[in-house]
Design a protein that fits this description.
326 residues; alpha/beta; Rossmann fold; 2 domains
């Protein structure tokens, strides 16, 4: 592969705290290796519309502590069209970009894989999503911050739950994965956890709430992952209320608040490590892969594998969450 002199970087899909830390690491690592960096505004949409900006060291000063992505992000269904991708290819070449780094989730990596295969441009991915559902890494950028945000919210809700003998059904994000819900549940001492990976009937939930050992508990927190078979927290709370009218129930949906805010130290560190490793991977001739961290080691996972394999929930943690809630 020819020598890489200019690296492009874009963020795509949902924003995640720590993306800016990753961009910062890419820029400064590339400069260290005598490469120039071009930022692409608004993800794949920017490739189609020539939204390129040069990035120097000072461009990323004081970005490490900010949430979101200063390069911006948006969905780009047009990129599915071959004609649009041809335009993107010409724009990339006209900018003198030799290789590309894509920060995002599964959908972003499918686009990255297409660029790599169709255009012959080396592309490396960095996993950035609060859902933590990408195969090939122990954690994704933004996950730790999202959990901490959810836990702080649940801690505040518990004060009201205890004061008024209420049961709060708290819905957290995660798309079709229960990682945020499970970690939030254990961290906040929730009474029950509902996640898509572990089927739970409404009868089972109600029987659990009525267990004799829970007779002295007059309030509680039920963590509900979005995307479950019974619907969201509102639907589940309604069904429980019909079965257990003696419970005073409330519903809180945390929503996009979990995607915002300053990244935690863990997400800043992860963003820094993965941003550095992505540049090094390109320099060493890697392409068509995502860089991840497993057992504190850098690992490469092909885009195909990262997008096709399901990231499994830790069943041991599910068991522990149940035991600790009794």
């Amino acid at each position: 592969m020819k020598n890489i002199k200019t690296i492009g970087i874009l963020t795509s899909g949902g924003d995640a705290p720590g993306m800016n830390a990753a961009i910062r690491a890419v820029v400064r690592t590339a400069i260290y290796h005598s490469c120039e960096v071009v930022g692409v505004k608004y993800g794949f949409f920017g490739l189609l519309n020539n939204l390129f900006i040069p990035l120097q060291s000072h461009s990323v000063s004081q970005k490490i502590s900010t949430g979101g992505t200063f390069l911006k992000s948006t969905r780009c269904p047009q990129f599915l069209q071959p004609e649009a991708r041809a335009i993107a290819y010409e724009n990339i070449r006209n900018q003198g970009i030799d290789a590309l780094i894509v920060v995002g989730g599964n959908g972003s990596f499918r686009g990255a894989d297409t660029i790599c295969k169709e255009m012959g441009i080396p592309v490396v991915g960095i996993p950035g999503t609060i859902d933590n559902d990408i195969y090939g890494t122990d954690c994704t950028i933004g996950f730790d911050t999202a959990v901490n945000t959810a836990v702080r919210a649940v801690d505040k809700l518990r004060d009201t739950a205890d004061s008024h003998n209420m049961v709060f059904f708290v819905e957290v994000m995660g798309r079709d994965a229960g990682f945020i819900a499970l970690n939030t549940s254990i961290s906040s001492g929730a009474e029950a956890t509902l996640i898509p990976e572990i089927p739970t009937t409404i009868d089972q939930l109600c029987n659990y709430l009525e267990m004799e050992r829970r007779a002295n508990k007059t309030s509680g927190i039920i963590i509900v992952a979005e995307g479950g078979e019974h619907g969201g927290a509102a639907e589940i709370a309604t069904q429980v209320k019909k079965r257990l009218p003696q419970y005073e129930t409330r519903v809180t949906t945390l929503g996009h608040i979990q995607r915002g805010g300053a990244p935690t130290a863990n997400d800043r560190i992860l963003g820094g490590l993965l941003g550095h490793d992505a540049v090094v991977a390109l320099i060493n001739g890697e392409k068509g892969v995502m860089v991840g961290r497993r057992n504190d080691q850098t690992v490469y996972t092909s885009f195909e594998e990262a997008c096709s394999r399901h990231c499994e929930i830790n069943k041991r943690m599910v068991e522990i969450a149940y035991i600790l809630s009794l």
